[in-house]
Write a structure and sequence with these properties.
alpha/beta, TIM Barrel, two-stranded antiparallel sheet, 12 strands, binds S-adenosyl-L-homocysteine
Length: 348
């Protein structure tokens, strides 16, 4: 099989170009076509010589995830069901904000962590996504916005909060972030990227050292016992006191914070008592809390919290001086909201 040029880093593309006997500047041109312009048909790369284009056609390929289905929510959220070349299905979501789009990216086909409240967790994990599949999701979304003439709002922010556990696909995550940041690549800066993780032992230090995206950690409970009930696999593998120790030494820039995500589940982790325990747990940590009201999904184990409990919880955190935001749920009608990504197409 011809190599997929979208799986290469810029360095690897340069090596490939020299291996086929072309001058180095060809690599930069090709890289811009692929990542900046979103063009994958070599014939359309008009500043490359005809013979070079023909050679590429014989010796290489440029394959993006294929759009199998697009669903648009009444609130403007757009969900893409993507089919990978081996048939695996993955979802990515474009979330409209007042001035821009935020894209939610997947890092694996499915997820092995099996958190009890998350639909993706019911699928198991088929495999890690490749570089062309991870960073390629951004190209697919940009091409869609261009084709639909919806570019008045730019795709500006990325959150790695779709299917999968990013830290279990670290190598490709870092390689993809490099392509995403590259000025002649996707040109989305590190401060506009957030990676969310349940916390995988031994990965935070490495991720922090790269300094290539902001960190969000899915906490969801103030105690080890409750966290083990809600997300048994993640919590047992990485006991809460160890996770907290590692977060206290996690490198953050002066005005930045690690985000702690907290999905509120009615009657499970949403009382004022839990809020008090949470304040105690986080007292010595530079962080902000992002509350997310549970979105119903495949698992019917839980209910969404009562609005007044969400308000009371968040007001308590604020009264204790914590920075706390409430994530607005978008795309629920097309199962595109947090925790709802499970490859259901419209008919099913
Ligand atoms: N595996 C990583 C990346 C996925 S992020 C992680 O868990 O952090 C997915 C986000 O959606 C997490 O913050 C997760 O806790 C949240 N989520 C999952 N299921 C949800 C649900 N049913 N309702 C609301 N949020 C949910």
């Amino acid at each position: 099989m011809n190599p997929n040029l979208l799986d290469f880093s810029l360095e690897e593309l340069k090596d490939f170009i020299s291996s086929v006997g072309e001058p180095p500047f060809r690599a930069a041109q090709l890289w811009q076509w692929l990542w900046q312009k979103g063009v994958t048909d070599f014939a359309d790369m008009t500043n490359l010589s005809k013979t070079f284009r023909a050679k590429l056609g014989e010796e290489a390929s440029a394959i993006l995830p294929e759009v199998a289905e697009v669903l648009t929510s009444t609130d403007g959220t757009i969900k893409f069901l993507l089919r990978m070349s081996d048939g695996e299905l993955v979802e990515t979501v474009l979330i409209p904000e007042p001035t821009h789009y935020t894209q939610c990216l997947s890092t694996q086909a499915g997820c092995a962590m099996a958190c009890t409240f998350c639909s993706t967790g019911t699928m198991g994990c088929a495999r890690n996504l490749t570089h062309s599949e991870m960073a390629g999701q951004v190209v697919v979304a940009r091409n869609y916005l261009r084709d639909m003439q919806m570019e008045s709002k730019r795709l500006r922010n990325l959150v790695f909060m779709g299917m999968g556990e990013p830290m279990l696909n670290m190598e490709t995550l870092i390689k993809s972030l490099r392509t995403i940041h590259d000025d002649s690549g996707l040109a989305i800066g590190a401060r506009r990227c957030t990676v969310s993780t349940v916390g995988i032992p031994g990965t935070l230090e490495e991720f922090g050292r790269h300094d290539m995206a902001l960190l969000a950690v899915s906490l969801h409970a103030p105690t080890q016992e409750l966290r083990e009930r809600i997300m048994p696999k993640a919590a047992r593998a990485y006991p809460l006191d160890q996770l907290m120790d590692d977060l206290r030494t996690y490198p953050v820039r002066p005005r930045e914070r690690v985000t702690l995500e907290y999905v509120m589940l009615r009657g499970v982790n949403d009382s004022l008592g839990h809020a008090r325990e949470l304040v105690r747990l986080l007292s010595r940590l530079k962080c902000k809390v992002n509350l997310i009201a549970y979105n119903p999904g495949r698992t019917s184990l839980y209910k969404a919290p009562q609005p007044e409990d969400v308000t009371a919880f968040s007001e308590y955190l604020c009264s204790k001086g914590m920075t706390c935001t409430l994530r607005k749920s978008k795309g629920q009608d097309i199962a595109a909201a947090c925790g709802q990504l499970a490859n259901q197409s419209q008919g099913s």
